[in-house]
Amino acid sequence: MHRAVDVKNLQRLPSPHFRVALAACKDNSSLDDLRRVGSLLDNAPASQKILYLPVLYLALDPARIPTAEDLESLQPCTVIRVTYASLSLAMLFRLWITKSSHPGLGSTLWPRVWPWIHFMHEQVEYLPDSIALTEIILYFRFLDFVSANFKPLRDSLLVTSTPGFRVFVGKAWAALSRMKSSPEQFEICVQSVALTLWEGDFTDPVHFMELIDGAGGGLQDLARLSAELFDPTAGQLFTLCLSCLVPLIMGAPDERPDLDPSLREEYLEMLRQHDFLPSLVARMDAFVDTAEADSESMTACFTVLKRLLHAPRTYRWFPSVIRAGLLHTMTRASLRFPGDLDDSVRYFLTNILPEVMVYYHVVTAIDEVLDSVTKVCHRKEFEALAIFDDWSEFLDLAEMRVELVRELADASALKACDNVECGELQDRSHCRRCSGCNSFYYCNRKCQMVDWGRGGHRNQCNSSTMLALADTRNCTLGFRERQFMRALLQYAYRQEVDSIYRQQAEVLVADPDAVLLTLFDYTWSPVQITVHSIANSPITETLDKMGVEWADFVSRAECSRGRMQLHIIQVSDGINSRLWVIPLRTSSSKVHDAVRELALNLSTDYDNEDLANEISAILEEADNSDLVEIH
Ligand SMILES: [Zn+2]
Ligand SMILES: [Zn+2]
């Protein structure tokens, strides 16, 4: 027992105060006795306050906790006992006892404080308001008391091994949202919770489940509360809130017990669904210019962001993240912490962002902010930064993609006849559409008949014109996304047309019967374009698993004599590669035939430069419609 709770200490009080305090220590002391001690306590000089502690220690005797029967009948004496304890706890927490001011005192008080807190917390819904502890004291002042007396919390077995303590922390966290009416109060409460979370060991799977229990029972409750920590009304506590979530998001430091990976993924997905990402970025954006911002916190922010964006189908979250100010935050971070933040920012500029700029909705979001970001990047002090070149390269790419999106809006609806033997290009409104699938178009009835029979559409009516490959199949893209990816391919094709046909000739020299595919790999920046024989490509294994739909594409491509080309786009969905076949069309076989003929007549020891010149000559002779058009 700590000597600070010894009744003898009361004798050191001035004598009138001593008598008041002593009266409150008697078995039959009244609420008024205790209230008188309370007012003395509040007016006492700081050094004397602790002398009143024995009164509170006696008052919180756990033997006085009402039983279930007592509560049932709720006799006046029970009401008094509960009120007495409520008052005592409130007074105790006002004493601001800390581990440094009174080492070891926390351990003496814990067996008195916790049983009462536990009781109040269990009964909070049943006790009349007049006698129950307010939530502020019950949850947040109590957590302050714990943080102050048990440091570091994770090593304080007395507290952490107490059954129900972590469930209680979850409840306190859930109570936060009810504190918002007063922003000042809310900020203090957020601090109490965040400190406890930060100091406790909640990555331990058992502890984590207890926390969830308190938070409301489901993982999504915990995710909602996590997102709430980044509520703008939580004021200046951004770094603290971030640090208490870092272990849950990133994994436990050192060799501490950690969550099961699948449970963590589930938690992270829930965070995304509760708008954690835009909230985080908005807070980063507001934080980066403040005096408290330091490179370490900003690096942690980017690390967390990166982790949350590393998952399947994360491209869905980018528009909101970009609109919340990601690019602006990155420019500010580059300016304020040159050098220190370069690695984090560079990873977004050269890796994460280029990868998702194949998605229409991401590029339209970038479109909205590009002008203002470009303006910042062209300021003098920016151009002197080491990271300026990466910015410049990123902005060029962004501008190009934004341009494509804009062109898409007023692109004419050209269609190529789906009778691959014909392939005539014309305005969509002049085409005849297959009523079976609504996605194949023909010049006229004759072409439709040919494709139905010889072309094999009879067997394929209903299949999509943009085929998702293998594991991509559960990932559907909207019309705009597909349209944009086609435009992207079209653009890359035009830029690299010489190289593509040169590669075609090279493959054909080695294997004159090869059916060709062109792979546009957008998991790299800039895009990597390679031509392969379908029997021998990096994705042949995937293609072989595709069955009839792919076989149909191949047979159509074969009988089209180059009017339909098997172009495949490879993009990242956040973690995995996704592949789509986007057959591109021309209305003539002129280039195709010329390249084949060139390849057939080429000796195996051909000169690279000669080949390139020959291809250039073929392309120069071709006009636009001999080359690929968007289908
Ligand atoms: Zn036709
Ligand atoms: Zn059809």
From TrEMBL:
Residues annotated as coiled-coil are: none
Q: Which residues form the MYND-type domain?
A: 419-461
- Report the superkingdom from the record: Eukaryota
Q: Which Gene3D superfamilies match?
A: 6.10.140.2220
Q: Which UniProt keywords apply?
A: Metal-binding, Zinc, Zinc-finger
**A molecular function GO annotation:** zinc ion binding
**InterPro entries per UniProt:** Znf_MYND
| Name of the protein described by the UniProt record | MYND-type domain-containing protein
Record organism:
Mycena sanguinolenta
Q: What high-level taxonomic lineage is stated for the organism?
A: Eukaryota, Fungi, Dikarya, Basidiomycota, Agaricomycotina
